[in-house]
Amino acid sequence: MPRTLEGQITMEKTPSYFVTKEAPRRIYNMSRDTKLIVVVRNPVTRAISDYTQTLSKNPSIPSFQALAFKNLSTGLIDTSWSAVRIGIYAKHLDNWLQYFPLSKFLFVSGERLVSDPAGEMGRVQDFLGLKRVVTDKHFYFNETKGFPCLKKPEGGSKPRCLGKSKGRPHPKIDMQVVQRLREFYRPFNMKFYQMTGQDFGWD
């Protein structure tokens, strides 16, 4: 990490940290005062989104259900597939809580980030001890992408939207497959709600 002067905040964004076993210990050893922001969304939607991203780069991969299930007839989920494993948030958080107390975390709802970006950004600014500068006047909803975008800053450049990889239409997944995944994640979601003290409303 770069040197940080008094009054500065240095931020780093790497989604894989949350699911990398060694990351909590390494970050703790670097700075136990680190504040951690974790953006989570419904793990079923997250798995389908992950698959959509991979599919766009490699159209010859097997179907979603072929990768999600070890055995489709018994409904046995393949937790070795990263798209499924990442959504078991309670398991990953367990690993982090061995090094950092819950007070060092802010859990941001991916769904609320879309429906109320200013509200979630308000929580982020409060957590970081920053003045609330980013408000609802900074966002507009882009119908094409299905995501909020940042409005043009005063005297600045064009409005800023998420890149091409965001807002892609998801492939049609059989409802039975979706239902089975919901059942699979439910106990993990409930544990995650208890651990964080936050109900994300995925069930």
Automatic annotation (TrEMBL):
Domain of life of the native organism: Eukaryota
Enzyme Commission number(s): 2.8.2.-
Keyword annotations of the record: Disulfide bond, Glycoprotein, Transferase
Binding site for 3'-phosphoadenylyl sulfate: R41, S49, K166, G167, R168, P169, H170
Disulfide bridge partners, by residue number: C149-C161
GO molecular function: [heparan sulfate]-glucosamine 3-sulfotransferase activity
InterPro entries for the chain: NST/OST, P-loop_NTPase, Sulfotransferase_dom
Occurrences of domain Sulfotransferase (ranges): 30-186
Protein name: Sulfotransferase
